[in-house]
Specification:
It is found in: Cytoplasm. The chain has helices at residues 23-42, 56-59, 91-100, 144-160, 175-184, 193-203, 206-218, 237-247, 267-274, 278-296, 369-378, 401-413, 427-436, 447-452, 460-467, 473-479, 491-500; strands at residues 46-47, 53-55, 75-77, 83-86, 109-118, 130-139, 168-174, 221-223, 229-231, 303-305, 319-330, 336-347, 362-368, 391-393, 418-420, 441-444, 454-459, 483-487. By secondary structure, it is of the alpha+beta class. Helix 7 (206-218) packs antiparallel against helix 8 (237-247). The radius of gyration is 29 Å and the shape is elongated.
Amino acid sequence: MAEKSKTSAVKARLPRGLVDRPAGEIKAAERMLGVIRGVYERYGFDPVETPLIEYTDALGKFLPDQDRPNEGVFSFQDDDEQWLSLRYDLTAPLARYVAEHFDALPKPYRSYRAGWVFRNEKPGPGRFRQFMQFDADTVGAASPAADAEMCMMMADTLEALGLERGQYVIRVNNRKVLDGVMEAIGLSGEENAGRRLTVLRAIDKLDKFGPGGVAALLGAGRLDESGDFTKGAGLDPDGIDRVLNFTGWGEQGSGSGSIAGVSAVTLSNFAAAVGTSVGGAQGVAELTEIEALVAAAGYSDRVRIDPSVVRGLEYYTGPVFEAELLFETVNEKGEPARFGSVGGGGRYDGLVGRFRADPVPATGFSIGVSRLMAALANLGKLSTEDEVGPVVVTVFDRDRIADYQTMVQRLRAGGIRAELYLGGSGPKAQLKYADRRNSPCVIIQGSDERDRGVVQIKDLALGKALAATIEDNATWREARPAQFEVPVDGLVEAVRSLLGGRP
């Protein structure tokens, strides 16, 4: 058979907006998820898993228009012409799950889940089409105490992961208060739903674009550095000023001027901002209760009211919250920067009710796993480097594979991670392979060692350290650094001792 032409080979390439994950990153993520899972379970939450694919109509009107099912979500039709979509987040699938199993579930229903979500959006720096979220939700509790608990649990999660107080803040606002402001600037009513969402998403970009960029998004629109134009909400100058003043960035409420948008606007200012809006007043009352609850529990230094928090999705109906990291780092250009938000959520009382005749209150929090991992790695709280690899049993005599396999099985039975070299290379290449696998040591047995009933154990890590201090070959050969022999029957104990003595 003719050899395949190299020019006809398929080009190996990764689609834009997606990433491959090496072993070190996967293991680091699992360690981090284990810590988060531990905190969630300590609060009484149990796991649940929903599929990656849902019926498109189950994702709801809050996501892209049903007339354009591929706008924002990845969608396709199955064989009976039903539209299906890759999940956009983990909240809409949970709402479907709760509605479908409503009578069998305890209420309130407390659950957590981790998984991949997908966005059919233009990829860019830090903007991916696939990323992982880790959510916790309480369904069936209308009290602001459920929202306060979410904020406190997020604070405990960040500290369990190694962050210190002062390195983060949980910021809280209320969409009812924001709706009251919308009413005050003439954007109430169903006919203005699209413009309200544009305003909310503009406010959500304060930490990224600053007041000038947000003002443009509130007005005619904004042209970014790549030349792409984002259409704005079309507010007049007075409306733009009122929104910015409410967030604490306008002339009447400049707040602290920090990127975090921590505003000097207090709950009494909120009451003035919503005017005669009944919903707005209810939002202020809910925030007042949340503030009292977190103060009573001793979380006031980590959870605080902030008018610039809005969250981008329209299905939020009450309190909204965001976890923001406050410490500075350096971006790819060498400039000071902050990681910003690593998670957020809020109350979504209408989402489960879409599937039922009666309303169902719900609130939840979602962690951006990749972003939080990057922040923890930057602080030295999480290593994504490859861990110590398996012990490698080398093959010096090809006709003795069974003997070498027996050694591997003895090591595994002794609780030691081990593998048999299965390639076709010689001894020198096998040692290089073990080195690339980050193996702590290799097991060597040639015919001479077999006849004497021993094996050679080469400590690769110690060998590297000694090699750095030995300069001439004669000394190297005389020292035979980090290599020793033991009886075959003592292999497991010798390797266990070597691994146990490593710092």
